[in-house]
């Protein structure tokens, strides 16, 4: 018997019927007037289109016209069985079923067709109002010469001082240091990015250095470095073209959440919510 149930549960048609039942149930909740009679099932053009779409999603191609009567009968069967089971309370304690229906309802509430596309002006105002979210942090670009304690031992620091004295403020390509996985030329990076590669003490030192002159040696998590800061930029708000896609997606997501919350609020307003005074007590396990 268990083997038979497992085989049935793996059948694609069963998945199709269950998904259809969930959609019918969600539609009944969203449109109670159309489903007010529990023994009346109306199937319109939109329902048939949903049946076709579900079939195409399941099998990768739309159904043939000759298949539609059977698909509609199966859909009606799933709706009847769902309503009868719900009336008997069969799913009341089924957390999996409750979660599936709840997730489907959340999806239906997030109706993207009702979300207005942000205009250029709206995106510019949004960017300015959320400057901290999109701000490019303070950055430095620097060149470094690495001295490895594992290769040089006690000579690492004296060798670094000796090279610093020979470099002065001279331009041109710097001499090579010891082999390292880190690049000699580090492009503009934030404090957090430098900390990730070199450690927080090195990052703090580099951000405090003057421009254009060799300084050091500065200790990192890897060893010692001579460092020349090539540029140092303050935090700045990027222009809209640089972050347009990100701003657009954030605005659409925010509007979708607002639309979903409004739709939920409208549905909730039809319910009378009563919480017994002693249902949640401060001394209960749930409250803790």
Provide tags for this entry.
alpha+beta; elongated; Chitinase A, domain 3; disordered N terminus; single chain; 4-stranded antiparallel beta sheet; 12 helices; 288 residues; 4 strands; disordered C terminus
Give a brief description.
With 288 residues, the chain is an alpha+beta fold.
Present the secondary structure layout.
Layout: H1 2-10, H2 12-30, H3 45-59, H4 68-87, H5 95-109, H6 120-129, H7 131-134, E1 139-147, H8 149-152, H9 156-167, E2 185-190, H10 191-198, H11 200-207, E3 214-219, E4 224-233, H12 240-268
Antiparallel strand pairs: 1-2, 1-4, 3-4
Helix pairs in contact: 2-3, 2-4, 2-5, 6-12, 10-11
Give a verbal description of the structure:
The protein is of the alpha+beta class and 288 residues long. It folds into three domains: 2-109, no CATH class; 120-132 and 241-267, no CATH class; 136-233, Roll (Chitinase A, domain 3), CATH 3.10.50.40. 53% of the residues lie in helices and 11% in strands. It is built from twelve helices and four strands; from the N terminus they run H-H-H-H-H-H-H-E-H-H-E-H-H-E-E-H. The protein has helices spanning 2-10, 12-30, 45-59, 68-87, 95-109, 120-129, 131-134, 149-152, 156-167, 191-198, 200-207, 240-268; strands at 139-147, 185-190, 214-219, 224-233. A four-stranded antiparallel sheet has the order 2-1-4-3. Strand 3 (214-219) and strand 4 form a beta hairpin. Helix 2 packs across helix 5 (95-109). It is elongated. The model is unreliable at 1-5, 32-36 and 283-288 (pLDDT under 50).
